[in-house]
Q: What sequence folds into this?
């Protein structure tokens, strides 16, 4: 399909367009993004397209999920390229609100999810998941999709959204989609554009270390030893490790000792220079 999607920034216009889709009996899917789209984002569209009649993709660099010293201002914005990429996909509508459309001056509400958003990225980025939950709740309420899809690349985010949707009884099915990687294993990310060529060459070590560590855990090695070795390997490879942890795959509760196969997730965040990379693998 090569028809250009309709681009809307006004929430009222979005509601109207969604109302028309619903009036036609269409099942609607939502792909929330911050833009600077790559094959990872496009895979979410492909994942959703067979499940629905119409795909809505939101593009919004959400200031509430960036900390004071983070990369909000430098985060890549490339609306025209993004729309061109989505035009090759089955996307009917792009919702690209301005900050003031989503957060007018008198905006006062924060959605804050509990235990699952603490630790990991919630630990190293205080307030991040409040910002994520707040914007995703608002996007879900604006679009009222039947299905919304999130990448396992942001595994904790996926579980935070699932928890929020359960707790608030938001009537939407949440789909998780697998991580899309470059040929050398690096998980695709809009932030990979920040890497220098030297850092880009070093970056695949993050996934390699996760995979090696998952292999050791599957063979019954002790979690603490595996994590210690992984942090040492990443540090030797030039990474500054934020966290490298073994967690329950369903709840993100911390695990220790040997872990039963099929129940755990290994999650990591580490910096190469000023670029923070995250990745995770199943155990
Ligand atoms: P972002 O634009 O970074 O907020 O990401 C928007 C959505 O795309 C989130 O659900 C991410 O988890 C997902 N995503 C980002 N990178 C990837 C990837 N490499 N593979 C799969 N999903 C991804």
A:
């Amino acid at each position: 399909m090569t028809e250009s999607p309709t681009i809307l920034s006004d929430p009222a216009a979005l509601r109207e367009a969604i109302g028309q889709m619903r009036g036609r009996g269409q099942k609607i899917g939502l792909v929330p993004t911050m833009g600077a789209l790559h094959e990872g984002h496009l895979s979410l569209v492909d994942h959703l397209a067979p499940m629905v009649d119409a795909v809505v993709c939101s593009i919004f660099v959400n200031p509430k999920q960036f900390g004071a010293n983070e990369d909000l201002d430098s985060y890549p914005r490339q609306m025209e390229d993004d729309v061109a990429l989505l035009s090759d996909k089955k996307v009917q509508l792009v919702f690209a609100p301005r900050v003031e459309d989503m957060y007018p001056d008198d905006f006062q509400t924060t959605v804050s999810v509990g235990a699952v958003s603490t630790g990991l990225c919630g630990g190293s980025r205080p307030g991040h998941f409040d910002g994520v939950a707040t914007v995703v709740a608002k996007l879900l309420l604006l679009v009222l999709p039947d299905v919304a899809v999130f990448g396992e690349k942001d595994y904790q985010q996926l579980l935070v959204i699932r928890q929020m949707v359960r707790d608030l009884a938001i009537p939407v099915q949440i789909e998780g989609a697998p991580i899309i990687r470059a040929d050398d294993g690096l998980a695709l990310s809009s932030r990979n554009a920040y890497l220098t060529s030297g850092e880009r060459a070093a970056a695949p070590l993050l996934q390699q270390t996760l995979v090696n560590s998952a292999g050791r855990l599957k063979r019954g090695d002790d979690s603490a030893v595996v994590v210690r070795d992984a942090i040492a390997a990443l540090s030797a490879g030039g990474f500054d490790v934020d966290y490298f942890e073994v967690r329950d795959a369903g709840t993100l509760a911390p695990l220790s000792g040997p872990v039963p196969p099929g129940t755990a997730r290994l999650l990591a965040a580490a910096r190469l220079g000023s670029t923070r990379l995250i990745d995770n693998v199943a155990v």
About this structure: Residues 181 and 188 are 5 Å apart (CA to CA). The first helix runs from residue 11 to 23. The beta strands are 6-8, 28-33, 54-59, 93-95, 147-151, 173-177, 240-248, 264-272, 275-282.
